[in-house]
Every structure is written in structure tokens, then in C-alpha cells.
Amino acid sequence: MFRWLEAVKSPSIFVKRTGDAVWTIQGYGLVLFTFASFFPRLSHVQEYAFLCLLLLAVIYAGHEGKPFWIRSPIDLPLMLFIGWVLLTTPFATDPAYSFAEWRKLVAHVLVLYSAALVFRMHANEVLTRRVMGALMIGTIVLCGYAIADFVARGGSWEDRSVRAGAPSSDYNWLTTYLVITIPILITVGFTYRARWKRVAFACAGVLGMLAQTISYTRAGWLGLMAEAIAFGLFTGRRRLIMWMFGAAVVIVIGLITVSQFGYQRQTVSTDNVQFRLIIWENAIHDIALHPFVGVGYGNDTFPKRYGVHPNTGVPAGMHSLFLMVAFGSGLPALGLLMWTLMRLVRVLVCAQSSQSGQGNRLTMLGVAAMVVGVFGAKSFGLHVCW
Predict the structure, then answer these.
(1) Against a cut of 0.70, is the pTM above it?
(2) What is the pLDDT of residues 55-100, one digit of tens each?
(3) What angle do CA 333, 339, 341 make, to 5 degrees?
(4) E-strand spans in 61-218?
């Protein structure tokens, strides 16, 4: 008790003695954020808690004489992308809205670098295992809810009039998160030696695949296929690539066949494609008129500019990340985003070859495949919800 009082009287001693506790809190905070990210309703609570933990991390990293900014190979293109988006906000259709969307982008980047800082300060695999455990448990809870809700609302295999969705959100959010988590769950699951852990990750992966299937989101299916093909290319497994192409052909032919008997007609319908083509045509027209600064960053810029969809009469988003970026902030922003993503994938694929453990190599390849799948799905129709 006396030593504690002495530490409180001396700020430097107090900060030093509480440093370990702060980084422990940061580690558990990252685990809780990982689990809470499965539930959109908790997003605002996450934001406030994250800002508090980030402030503590910066203070204690500075006091310990360690840089709080973790350098990475994507720093340059990522910072240029953020800077260019900010530069174009005064030219936006709604500058206040575009600036608010830019702040969300910055918040996502801060989460990335904050997580990197916490991982570095822990410098062991314990935190990684905990975060992966939270990812696995969160996936099981999310998919369990989605499947139960799908059944309760009368969903079936006959058509997609009822689609599995996330709590307090919809099928777009659910399928986006599953495209992110499934390849990580599969690759990380192989890194564990304990059978029960492998079984737990396998169960999470199976539930994720089932929830992805009954979400009836074609862009989500495309994202998973792109991830499998990317993993096959990264590892030189041609047989996996051929299996994926064969499975895709069988699924497409099967859906078309059963639609002739009255099943899954909405799934094979091209009405949604026509719906998006009209949006993309208007977007490309505006990109041609404003190729450098665009007309405003953010998915809601399109309805702010054009109002409702000319055919459906309802507000419509862009349904394509890359078109949204080019439409909102010009072709330079699109080029910088592509540069960032390609460098990230290249670094992960090249760096995994130098890893000593098979588990680390699989995890890095899984993350690289995830990047390809997520942004591939978002470029071809998956609703932009980041």
C-alpha cells in the first residue's frame, strides 16, 4: 500500500508501473473490439472506447520512448489516398457529407495502426490467439443468429424472398463480414495442434459457409470463389483452381436448371444487374466529366446527386467500391487505392515465404486471399458498407 501511494505521488513512477497494466488492457480491448465488431449496433460504443484506448496507447508509447506509428509498406499509397480524398471534399456535391465520410475512412486507418501498435507492444502469440478466438466465437454467434432468424422468418431453399442477415442489419453486412472471416478461419484453424481447437474453427467455417449460402448474395459467393482461386494461385495449387471453376460452372448450371421448375428464380434473375448498370452508366458519365476530383466521396453521394433510381423510384447506392471511389474523388484516388491494395497483397505473399512456421505462412496467405476476395466482391456488386 505504501509503495502504491509513493507511486501515485511521483507521476513518472506511476506511469512506469502502470505501463504493463495499460498494455494488458489494450490487448483485452482489441479482443473485445474484434468480438463486438460482429454486431453493428455496438459500432458507436466501439468508436468511443477505441478513441480512449488509442489516446492511452499514444501517451504510454511516447513515455516509453517507442514510436506509436508502426511503419508499413503501404504507408505511402495509403496516406496519399487519404490526402487526395480530403483534397477533393470541397468539390463535392455535399462537402459536409463527404468530409464526414472522410473522417470515417481516417477512423478505419487509425484502427489498423492502433492494432499494429498493440500487437507490437505484446510481441508474442498470446494476443494473436486471443483475437483469433474472438473471431471464431463471434462468427459462431453471428451465423447462429443469422441461421435461426432465417428459419424463423420462413426462409427456404426454394427462393431468396427471405435472406439471412445480421442482427440490426441486413444480408449485405452479413455477407461482407463472412467474406472477411471465412478465409482467415480456415487458414488459422490449421495452425492449431489441439484437435478441439481445429474442430471449433472448422465448425465456425462451416456455419459461415451455410450463412453465406442462405444470404443468397451472389457477390458474396463470387468473393469466396475469388479467395479460393487467389489462394490457389499464391500456393501454386492448380487443382484447387480447377475445382473452383468446375464448382462455379456446376452451381450456375444447377441454378438455371432449377429456375425452370420455379425454384430460385430471383437468384438467377438479371433484374438486379440491369438496376446496377443504370447506376454505373451515370457514374461513368460523371467520372468522364470530373476525372480528377470527382463529385463527392461516399456511397450516398449518388442519391444526393441523382435522387431516386429512375426505374425503381427508391434511393440507390453505387454497389461498387472502385466506381464509388472514382466517382467520388476522381481517377487519382482510384489509382492510389489500387496501388495500396496491390502492394498489400504483394507484401503478404512475398513475406510469407520467409516465415519459419507453416502456420504463419498460411495465415498471411489467408489474409492476402481475403483482400482479393473482399475487394473483388465489392467491385462487382457487393454493397459498399465500409
Answers:
(1) yes
(2) 777 776 666 666 667 788 899 999 999 999 999 999 998 999 999 9
(3) 105
(4) none
